[in-house]
Write a structure and sequence with these properties.
Leucine-rich Repeat Variant; two-stranded antiparallel sheet; HEAT6; ARM-like; HEAT repeat-containing protein 6
Amino acid sequence: MAAQSGLSHPAPGRGGVSVFPPVPLSAEAAPFTPMEPSGWRPGSQSEAEKLFSNCAIKLRAMRVDSVQLKEELNLLFDQLLSENYNRTFEPADVCSLLKHASCLVPLTQEHLVIKLCQVVHHLLNQLKVIMDEHTLDVLVNYTAGALKVCSTWTHTDVLLALSTVVYGNGPQCHQHLSDLLGEEGFLLQYSSPSQSNMELRRVALTCMANICLRIPGQPPLDDQYRSVCFRAFLKTLQSTKPPDTDELYYCMMIQAALKGLQCCLSGGKWKFGGGEELGSVLAALKRLMFQGAPGVIVEWPAVLYPAPLPQYESLSAAKAAESPKSLEPPKDAANKKRKSKGKGKKMKTEESRGDEREGDAETVPAPPKGRAEEKQPASFLYPSWKLNSSDSEFSDLEGNAQSKLRYRKVNHGRVRQGALHCLLAVVKAVEKRTLYGYWSSFIPDSPIGGPPPLTLLTIILKDLSPKVRLCALQVLSAMLDGSRQFLAVAEDTASPRTSYTPFSFTLATAIRELHRTLSLALLAETSPQTLTQVIKCLAYLVANAPYHRLRPGLLTLLWKHIRPYVRHRDVNVRVSVLTLYGALVTTQAPLPEVQLLLQQPDHSSSTGAFTPQDSGLREEDSRRLWLLQLCVTLVTQPREDQSDSEGVGGGAALEPPPVRLEALQVLSHLVRGYFPLTQHYLCEIGQVSARCLGEMDTSIQLHGAKLLEEFGSGIIQQYRAENNVPESSRVPISQVVQFWSEVLSGPLNRALQNEQHPTLQASACDTLSSILPQAFAQLPDKTQLMCITVLLGLTYIENYLVKTAAVRALGIYVLFPCLREDVMFVADTANTILAALDDRSTNVRAKAAWSLGNLTDTLIVNIVGVDFQEELSDMLLLKMLQAATRAAADKDRVKSNAVRALGNLLHFLRQSQMTRPAFQQPLEDAVRALVKTVQSEATMKVRWNACYALGNAFRNPALPLDSAAWSHEAFSALCHVVTSCKNFKVRIKSAAALAVPAHRGCYGDTERFTRVWRSLATALENSEDTNDFLEYRYSASLRHTLSQALLHLLSVSQSQDMLGLSASLASEEGTGIREHLIKYLRAEEGGGEEAEKDIRGESLHPRERIGSVEQILIRIKGLKCLLIGASFDSLPFDTLKVKVPKANL
């Protein structure tokens, strides 16, 4: 039965007018509908808009000569200040009002000036109006004039208005910056440490910070004024609190300076001087990181210097005598701590945080001397800033003092938070290599004896504010991100030396300390946001630390600690846990410790706090990969615990998309890094991928296709001959064929044809390219034809992502043994690639050039088949040659593979084709393109590819090297590069190319042959001259290749060449040649992969080298008899013949 009652007092509107009439409350009452025109309606003007419009009308009607102007303006400004504006107005209306108001208020009326400045601040701050340049100029002029004319007591409000006006508009105020930030500028005067008015100083610093603030898309402030502001902010941060200054105002001033320094550093590189300035900033920020932390009473250094060891802060002189040497916990407290092991989760978490903090000497208050026997309260072992109101001894009468204390803690926390935000900006602005020198000041190792240093880890474990701990974790994450090259030095597998501690061991100790501290924070953290950042920070650490150089055990403990959080109720925590698992299975994969963790299920619970969730994750079968099963469950199964907001109101809902996406990424990482363990789950992974491809969410589909691609790539790696995987350890071909048959008949085919999502199409093309060639040959013919037809068709899609992926896939297919002899497929692929080489997208052209290089590799494989050469169209070859020549003049990304294709094509051409007039000019253009690329300033990869391409072209016996006009240019370019290029790999490729021609006639006349010899001899003599240490590692390979090339020239030399060779070997240059040749014959010139093969790719044992040299000697002795008047007594070949066998037998 519905009770009826009325509203006796209707809600009054503005002016006491009832907005809504009385309505009886009843279940049968009609639903609420908007009122008639007399009442409120949607879309009608709000009271704030009406007030603003009325004020604007009144303001425009006012005149300067009005008698009651002062009173009217005062009333109008009060009305504007009384309203809270929560709706956006037209910027032009607001700007017009403010400009007109500034014209009506003279600077002599200081009270009105203050009111106007308050209105400016109020409107611009609430409405977020973007001012036009004229309004900005008018308001800055007005406020700057007020600072010059009005009394000092008005300047606080004037500066507040100015700070709102210049917010993000610093570069547009360049006309006024000299008055504000010049040597005698107002802002510099009021922000100076000599300024006693803290509020005025704070507002001036805020104004400077807003000037430095950079809005995305706008140019930054001029470096001159940014440096001025930077020095002012740094000077403020370095100054101490005046003795008679209120703590609140001092903290607010420091917050303004920190915000300003952050604005100076955000969005750019460090431009404020060298190490002294950086050290000063870091020292000031480190001091402010611990602002207001009880028990932290130390003398902070004014400057931090780069050092491999931490710079410990010394105790303050005033407190040194009071600091205890050691502090033993009372026995009753220890007993109480032992008894509390059986308490609940929350108590245990708090105790873990408390136990961590007890060991920090800086935060434990010292008992007064002579009172050590007195019984301490239970909270004595907690840091003083861990105590909450229930632990304090304030009475109800002292509530006001207690609230002040709490407010003081809040402001100190904001200072610490601002300092960490600013430190994060410094970390992002300074180069990594520069910042590494300061790591020891913020990331400690494990010091032996003495109090632990105050670092970021201290804040992460000890600070009471979760926001401050979150900021510290963000800074630490930024420092760890990209630090792999620096941390790669760390090593502690060997026993440490007693005489000194190497830096590698110190760095390894720091990594272990990071693991220990972050693991403690993981167990103690209660804030979900901060917990998420703890796990992300651990992921950065795992991704960059060299665990293969560290003693095992770190990842095992971390694996155990992180496992309970996979069922955490917060979605972000679950996502970050999966990110950490992804880092664990990615770092230096396959890592033996991680491999054992994957194979051994963890039956132990961590602390007992998460046993209900953890029990569902245990696997009885030790052969099952727990992590893989977990990810499959998260992707495919409904979530058991529906406590999250995303599961409310629905049935058996799946995990949220971020969790499922991260789980799919972990699966991809797991397959890539530990394929031998995951290959047994072929069917499960195929089912997961098929399910993902069949969903509506494009992101899920993309990750499903990526998982298929990773699995296909893993199978391909198993079947590569160079990996030497036993047949019994590979995935059987029959299973691979069945796997791909099911995939290609399922949703992958639909993804390939999904034109609404080009990214998905591109990913599906990449998946097609990861099919094992042996398995592709056993697929049904219609399936093979479907793959080829789809890829050929997708190359005509306008979207560059799809076209790039399709062209790349065809470039892989053309290498398949079952397809490379199919002339029709090769021709179709060639025509498709030629069309893609003319695409306007650089990405498409680069991938097309790569595919063309692969296609021409196929031509070289088929060069022995006469039928293939005859069936392939000459016109198509000509088109490929011309297209590759044009691509060789493209960008370096395209050029590197275009020259590779040119070398293959020049190698493939037959004599009958070269003699045709249609081929002669393109042939010459192609060789000249290679010569130009060798001599160019392109990237080294492009140049050594061009050298290799020339050597590849020289392998064609039909190429007229002896008579062609371009032959001289080709040899000259190679001779120049082999002696002068700074990159040793380019020299190696050029030397190998010079040794390719198989006959003496290919080298031309005696003059050219001698020049090639002297170029190789000079390069051998200078093979150790380099200023780049990275190039020195290739010097042995270079000498090896040069020695081979010189011996090759000797082997093909003729009698007319003996005079030049004799002169070279008899000179001082010949002495070096003999030494290097002897080393080469003794197999002392190794140098890596090139050591075991000659320039033709043939394996050369040291005995074979000696045998080839003996043949060369016999041949040269035969040439002696043909040359009259030449003395060969100085030739060192007899010496080589005698010494080498003795050294090798």
